Amino acid sequence: MKINIFNIIWLLILISSKSFSQPNPGSLKGRILSAEEEPVAGATVQFQNTIISTKTDANGDFRFSAIPAGTYVLIVSNIGYIAHKQNLIITSGKNPFLNLQLSESKQELREVNISSNRKSYQVKPSSTATRMDLPLLETPQSVQIVSSEVMHDRQAYTLNELASTFTGMKANNGNGSFSMRGFTAYSPTDASFLLYNGIRGNLFLWSQQPLLYNVASVELLRGPSGALFSEGAPGGVINFITKKPLLSEQYNVELSLGSWNFRRASVDLTGPLTKNKKLLYRAIIGYDRSKSFRNDQDKENIFLAPSLTYLFSENTNLNLELNYAHQKAVHQYDNGTFIRTRPDGSFDFNYYPDNLTIQSPTDYGKTNNSSATLTFNHRFNDRLKLTMVQRAVRNTLDFTDHIPVGKIKNDSISRAYQDWQTDRFSLQTTAYSSYDTKTGPLKHQIIVGTDYNRYGWTKNDYQYKPSTRISIFNPDYSHDPPAATVPAEESDDNKRVTNLTGFYIQDQISFGKQLKALFSIRHDHYDAKETPLSARDNKQGDQLQASGWIPRVGLVYLPLAQLSVYGTYLRSFNPQTSNNVLSGGPFPTRKATQYELGSKADFFNQQLSTTVSVYEIKYANILTSAPTEENSHRQAAIDGTRSRGVEFSATGTIQNFNIIAGYAYNEHVILSTSAFGKKGDRFANAPKHIANLWVKYNLDCSSVKGLGIASGVRYVSDQVGLISNQNFILPAYTVLDAALNYQTGRYNIQFNAYNLTNKRYFTGSRSSTVTAGLGDPFNYRIGLSYQIR
């Protein structure tokens, strides 16, 4: 994809010269009741620090329309009642309904004031898990949402840097590989584990860290989520909520500097383009460049995200969002740092220096990722709504790399060379409607939807060649890369197209206010074909046809208004990545089944949200090598693995403290003995214990008003780095972080220090005991942001 970056930047600046930023219109309605469930008439309902306000009618009902999208504090008050305060998110085209209760008070009502620098981490509603605007308390699944405030306070600019904020999640290396509930989510095998606004189509390739320039919040839906989103990683699905055009003008610029020559700049422009405020825009431009403590780890990113929204009426809108991400790197894949094997077979993780790498200065990676998403929302009436989405994604990669071959001997290692060019695509069409109705005393929220996804690649040109052996301490790269005349030991040259068609129906039934049941059923059909493009690809091709039903059942009981207990049964299935007949295919489809029980509660006047969950996931039909004398390439599907665990998370604000805390226990083991491993063996990159804590204190004293102090700790217990070698155990680690920020007027200055004790730690491993992913040593970032409007 050829594109003139500077012309696009200039065009966006011209477009934005008229206006400068804030959120897309949404609406809100609800009902205010007393503790005796009587309507409270004349209550004041107001969005704090805005002029948006109304009063309830004789039935206790209220309604707002054309609210700028964004995060708000809603205050409900009335004489004789205790004021109610609630955080909520208004999303473009969404129409949530709130049922709120006021408690009687004999004291005079006082105004509730919240300091502007005390921005809450708490996000209560999520429409992604069920495609309905449900409070998390009523959602029968473990869902965690990290807001833009958390990203800002941590100066987290990629998903890898944000991953440790989620309970039970970690980045396995410097690429797009993550562990959730003990399962590895990695794009080549789990293409849909990363969603955008609830729609399939990952913008970034697996060799990259997903960027957060245009991301407003990040959601983790734990466990398989096939009922709505089709295939996905068994441990969870990540959903990016992107920033949308706003009704009011805003202009924000951010600059950051940090260790290893890190430089980052971004602008975010938004507002109306027409006088009647029917046409809105948003333009996000980002650039970053950095080196590393590792040799030859230079990386450069350019990111563009223009978007337009047209408001036909308060009931109808159309949004177009474009994304373009260009990355140029010397080493796009991070193959980790060397690990020494002692003579007795144990491992020395501290023998080789941090900066050494298997890769060569001649390696490079160039990617161009682009996407276009068109979303149409229409509300026919208060009960019936329709959403239609068309998303197109294209990813091109030009990449070379050196990888380890065999074991380290006498501090030297043999290497192989990879040369890869690929052009990948995804075309996703989604349409769904929601309908609210009643059958007698039962209330129904029904979702009916259909998906069509055509994805694959038009080019996959890959060659694997032998390369030179190097001394680890004194490498000689003069013969890199191998000459073009060196024959490839492995070669692919093919194209692949997969057509996925699915439809689903979901019904949430309310048995009064305390008991709710969720039933979903989905049917998916896959039709895929891989075709050789030249004689270099000596395979016979790969074909796939698979279909199946995916059920989901959930139950929620609310004994108290701010306490729920839930149980859920989730399923998903993924087509095999290989069904080649030469390998013994076709193979049965991979299937994930989860049982989960949990409880959610809000404390401290609903400012702290907690979730406790217990789960079991079984993942069946994993492919493994099963060679025979007649067929050395034969594979077989095995019983699979089982993951069990307990999780606790807490997010919110208590007075001047912002808090995110979590603990996860997970045991992920193999269920049967095969070439994959022995029964009872631990799964790779799946630590049994992960804990995280981040606390920020916002000072309110007049002399230091605007100052925030934060600190955090991350703990990860030991983990097996390779299933086939259970003695290859990466050590446990604890990492400490800290931050300071000072906000005055429209300026915010931020300083973050990471890994304060300079702990040497390993995050995970890929496919050998020779290398492992190495965590960053002590480093820092300084950020400055300025909001013009």
From TrEMBL:
Residue span(s) of domain TonB-dependent receptor-like beta-barrel: 319-756
Chief site of localization: membrane
NCBIfam families recorded: TonB-siderophor
Top-rank taxon: Bacteria
Annotated protein name in UniProt: TonB-dependent siderophore receptor
Ranges for domain TonB-dependent receptor plug: 136-237
Transmembrane segments: none
Family: Belongs to the TonB-dependent receptor family.
Pfam short name (any one): Plug
UniProt-annotated location(s): Cell outer membrane
Bilayer disposition of the protein: Multi-pass membrane protein
Gene3D superfamilies: Carboxypeptidase-like, regulatory domain (2.60.40.1120), TonB-dependent receptor, beta-barrel domain (2.40.170.20), TonB-dependent receptor, plug domain (2.170.130.10)
Keywords: Cell outer membrane, Ion transport, Iron, Iron transport, Membrane, Receptor, Signal, TonB box, Transmembrane, Transmembrane beta strand, Transport
PROSITE patterns linked to this entry: TONB_DEPENDENT_REC_3
InterPro entries the UniProt entry points to: Beta-barrel_TonB, Beta-barrel_TonB_sf, Carb-bd-like_fold, Plug_dom, Plug_dom_sf, TonB-dep_rcpt-like, TonB_sidphr_rcpt
Signal sequence, start to end: 1-21
